TrEMBL record:
Key words, A-Z: Membrane, Transmembrane, Transmembrane helix
Gene3D superfamilies from the UniProt entry: Glycerol uptake facilitator protein
Species of provenance: Niastella caeni
Matching InterPro entries: Aquaporin-like, Site-sp_rcmbase
Locations listed in the record: Membrane
GO cellular component terms attached to this protein's record: membrane
Transmembrane segments: 360-380, 392-409, 461-479, 508-528, 570-590, 626-650
Protein name, as recorded: Recombinase
Coarse class of the protein's main subcellular location: membrane
Topology versus the membrane: Multi-pass membrane protein
Length: 689
C-alpha cells in the first residue's frame, strides 16, 4: 500500500501537471487549415502580420543573414499564393480600420517645437514612454516591430527588396478606399500648413532670394494648391484630369520649395548658420519629402511610387524603434551645423596640404618661423614661473603667454605643426563627400591626398623642431650670459628632462590630452567663424552708433573686416592657449595626474633642461630617450587631433567609412609603391593617375 500510495502521489506531482503550450506558427496554421484572414477582424489581421514579420526577423547574432531569411520568405510566399492573399487582406484591414494621420504627419518627422523642447520630450519619454491609442497605426507597427533593434535588419534588407515585396502584395491606393484617401488628404493638409508656417520664420524669410519673395513664395503657393486638390478629390463627381493637373502643379511647387531649402543651405557656407535655422530647414525638408509621397497617393493615377513607399516604411520602422533616442536626434539636427564648422576648417585645411616641392619647402620655412616664436613662448613661460603666483593666476598668465604666441604665429602666417590636423582632416573628409557630385569618390586620389597630408605634417614638424631645439638653447645661453645664471638649473632642469621621458613620466598620456585640446580649439574656431558670418558682425560693427562716433570710419571698417576674416582663428588660438595654460593647474588643484605635452613646447623644455643640467652632467642615453619622447608626443598630438577631427568631418557629411572597404588596401598598395611620397614630394608631379 505504501508503494502504491507513493506511486499515486508521483503521478500527481506538480511536474506532471505542467502543460507546456506549444508555440503555433500562425502562417502555417492558416495554410494547413485553409483559413483566410477577415478584413473585419483587426486583431486577427494584426496577429497574422506579427507572425509574418517573425518569419523574416533574424536572430540577434545573425543580422548579416537578414537578406537570406527575406529571400526564403519571398520564395515561401511564391509557393503559397494564399499566404500572399492573406497578407494583402491583413494589411488592408489595418489601413482601413486604423488612424493613419499620426504616422503620416509625425513618425519620422520632428515636431515643430524647437530643438530644446524636442530634446526634453525625448528624455521624458525615454524614462516613461508615451501612451499609445490602440486605433493608431503606429500602435500596430510597435506590435509588429517590437524589438528595439528591428530597424537594423529592416535597413540591411534594403529598399529594393522591400519594393519587391510590396509589388507582390499589390499595394495601390485609389478612390476605391475612401477611408484611406480621406486620411491621406487630411495628412497632406496638416503637413502643408506646417511647411507654410515654417517658411515664414525669420531664419527663412531673411535668406530667401528676391525672386521667391511674396507673392511667388513657394511655401505659400503649395498650401493653396493642397486646398484645391482636397476640394477636387473629395467631390462626388471628381475630375481625374483636374486632380492630375493640380497634382502636377503641386509637385513642381514642392520641387521649388526643396530647391529654395538647398539654396539657403548652400549660402550658409558664406553667411553662416545657427542651430535654429538648421533645425527649421531640417523640418521643412522632412515634411516636403513626406508630402511628395502623399501626393503620389492622391494624384488619381492608381499608381504609387514604391521606392518612396519603401523609404517611408524603413523610415517609420527606424523612427518607432529610435523615437526616444537622444543621440539620434542630436545627430540629425546638429549634422548640418557641424558640417558648416567642418567645412570652414576644410577650406582652411587646403593651405596646409603641399603638392609640389616648392610648396613643401615653403611649408618648412613657414614652420621655422613658427618654431622661432615658440622659442620665446617657452622662455617667457619659464620666466613667469619665477613669479610664484597663486595657482589660478599662475595658470592665467601661462594661458595669456600661450595665446599671444599662437596669435602671433597666425598673424605672421607662420605654421605650428599641431594646428594642422584639425584642419587637414576636414579637407581629407571632403574627398569622400559625394553630396556635391553624382560620382563615387576616387579612392586612389584620396590615397594621394593622404600622402600629401603626411608629408606636409612631416615638413611642419621638421621646420618647427630644427629651430626650437637650437633656438631655445641659444636663448637660454643669452639669458645666462646676461643675468649670470641659467634660467632653470639643478633639480628643476632635471625635472624638465624627465617630464618629456616616454616611460619615466606620463608624457605620452598628456600628449593625448593636448591632441584633444587641439581638436577642440579647431571646433571652437569653426563655430565662432560660423556665428560671425551668420550674425553679420562686420556689418553690425560698422553701423554701431557709439563706435561710429568714437572711431574714424576707415579704422572701424578695418576692425570689422579683420574680425570677419580672422575672428574664428583668433577665438581658436586664445582657447587653445587657455586649454594648455590651465591644464596643469587643474591637475594640481584636484590632485590628479592631468597635464598637457605639446611637441614644440616639449622640445623647447628639453633644450632648457639640457642647458640647465650642463653637458658634462648629462646622460646621453637619457637625453636620447627624452628626444624620442618629444617625437612620441608629436605623433600622439597629431594622431588624436586628426582622428577626432576626421570623425566629426565624416559624420557631419553623412559619410559611412564602411561603404569604402577597399580604401585601406588601395592606401597600402600606394604606400608600398611610393613610400617616399609620404615623406617628401616628387620632383615632377606624377601622383595623379
Amino acid at each position: 500500500m505504501k508503494n502504491e500510495k507513493h506511486q499515486f502521489t508521483i503521478d500527481h506531482s506538480p511536474l506532471t501537471m505542467i502543460r507546456i503550450k506549444k508555440k503555433v506558427n500562425l502562417i502555417k496554421d492558416f495554410l494547413e487549415k485553409g483559413r483566410t484572414v477577415s478584413i473585419k477582424d483587426r486583431e486577427e489581421a494584426m496577429n497574422y502580420l506579427v507572425a509574418f514579420v517573425a518569419m523574416i526577423r533574424p536572430r540577434l547574432s545573425e543580422f548579416e543573414n537578414a537578406n537570406k531569411k527575406f529571400a526564403e520568405t519571398i520564395q515561401f510566399v511564391h509557393q503559397h499564393p494564399s499566404v500572399l492573399n492573406n497578407l494583402r487582406v491583413a494589411i488592408m484591414a489595418q489601413l482601413i480600420n486604423s488612424n493613419l494621420v499620426p504616422m503620416l504627419t509625425e513618425s519620422g518627422i520632428t515636431v515643430s517645437r524647437g530643438a530644446g523642447r524636442e530634446l526634453y520630450a525625448r528624455l521624458k519619454h525615454k524614462l516613461l514612454p508615451a501612451a499609445q491609442d490602440p486605433n493608431d497605426f503606429l500602435y500596430l507597427l510597435n506590435r509588429i516591430f517590437f524589438k528595439h533593434n528591428d530597424y537594423e535588419w529592416v535597413e540591411k534588407i534594403g529598399r529594393d527588396k522591400w519594393m519587391h515585396l510590396f509589388e507582390l502584395i499589390g499595394l495601390s491606393f485609389s478612390g476605391n478606399e475612401p477611408a484611406i484617401i480621406k486620411q491621406v488628404i487630411l495628412s497632406l493638409q496638416i503637413l502643408s500648413a506646417r511647411v507654410a508656417q515654417l517658411g515664414w520664420e525669420n531664419e527663412i524669410t531673411h535668406n530667401t532670394p528676391p525672386q521667391w519673395q511674396p507673392p511667388n513664395n513657394p511655401f505659400s503657393i503649395q498650401q493653396h494648391l493642397v486646398y484645391e486638390i482636397k476640394e477636387q478629390v473629395l467631390r462626388h463627381n471628381q475630375s481625374r484630369e483636374a486632380v492630375q493637373e493640380l497634382a502636377k502643379q503641386l509637385g513642381d511647387v514642392l520641387g521649388e520649395c526643396a530647391e529654395l531649402v538647398q539654396l539657403i543651405r548652400n549660402e550658409t557656407a558664406e553667411k553662416g548658420t545657427s542651430l535654429s535655422q538648421t533645425f527649421i530647414l531640417f523640418q521643412i525638408e522632412q515634411k516636403l519629402n513626406r508630402m511628395s509621397l502623399l501626393l503620389d497617393i492622391t494624384d488619381a493615377d492608381d499608381k504609387i511610387n514604391l521606392a518612396r513607399f519603401a523609404n517611408l516604411f524603413i523610415t517609420v520602422v527606424r523612427n518607432e524603434n529610435r523615437k526616444n533616442s537622444i543621440r539620434e536626434f542630436l545627430s540629425q539636427t546638429t549634422g548640418y551645423l557641424a558640417y558648416q564648422i567642418a567645412e570652414h576648417k576644410g577650406k582652411k585645411g587646403n593651405k596646409y596640404i603641399t603638392s609640389s616641392p616648392l610648396e613643401y619647402f615653403q611649408m618648412i620655412g613657414s614652420a621655422m618661423w613658427g618654431g622661432l616664436i615658440i622659442c620665446f613662448v617657452a622662455i617667457f613661460k619659464n620666466l613667469l614661473g619665477l613669479l610664484h603666483l597663486a595657482p589660478f593666476w599662475s595658470g592665467f598668465v601661462y594661458s595669456i603667454n600661450y595665446s599671444l604666441g599662437f596669435v602671433a604665429i597666425e598673424e605672421t602666417k607662420a605654421t605650428l605643426a599641431t594646428k594642422q590636423p584639425a584642419f587637414t582632416a576636414s579637407a581629407v573628409a571632403s574627398s569622400l563627400d559625394t553630396s556635391k557630385t553624382d560620382e563615387p569618390p576616387n579612392l586612389y586620389n584620396l590615397a594621394v591626398t593622404v600622402s600629401k597630408v603626411s608629408r606636409s605634417q612631416i615638413a611642419s614638424f621638421i621646420g618647427n623642431l630644427i629651430v626650437v631645439f637650437p633656438g631655445t638653447y641659444l636663448l637660454a645661453w643669452l639669458y645666462d650670459w646676461a643675468v649670470g645664471h641659467p634660467l632653470v638649473q639643478g633639480e628643476k632642469a632635471a625635472h624638465l628632462l624627465q617630464d618629456q621621458h616616454p616611460w619615466q613620466s606620463l608624457s605620452l598620456l598628456y600628449a593625448c590630452n593636448t591632441g584633444f585640446f587641439l581638436f577642440l580649439s579647431g571646433i571652437i574656431a569653426g563655430y565662432v567663424q560660423n556665428k560671425i558670418n551668420y550674425g553679420r558682425i562686420d556689418k553690425r560693427l560698422t553701423e554701431h552708433p557709439v563706435l561710429r562716433l568714437s572711431l574714424p570710419q576707415n579704422r572701424l571698417q578695418k576692425i570689422a573686416a579683420y574680425l570677419n576674416r580672422n575672428g574664428g582663428s583668433l577665438a581658436g588660438n586664445i582657447a587653445l592657449g587657455f586649454f594648455l595654460g590651465m591644464a596643469g593647474i587643474v591637475g594640481k588643484i584636484f590632485g590628479i595626474p592631468f597635464d598637457i605635452r605639446h611637441i614644440t613646447i616639449s622640445a623647447a623644455n628639453t633644450s632648457l633642461g639640457a642647458y640647465g643640467v650642463g653637458w658634462e652632467h648629462i646622460n646621453y642615453r637619457y637625453l636620447g630617450n627624452a628626444f624620442a619622447g618629444v617625437l612620441g608626443i608629436g605623433f600622439l598630438n597629431f594622431l588624436v587631433s586628426f582622428s577626432l577631427a576626421f570623425t566629426v568631418a565624416v559624420r557631419s557629411r553623412g559619410i559611412k567609412l564602411k561603404d569604402y572597404p577597399g580604401f585601406l588596401k588601395i592606401l597600402w598598395k600606394y604606400f608600398r609603391s611610393h613610400p617616399l611620397d609620404f615623406i617628401r614630394p616628387r620632383k615632377r608631379r606624377q601622383e595623379a593617375g
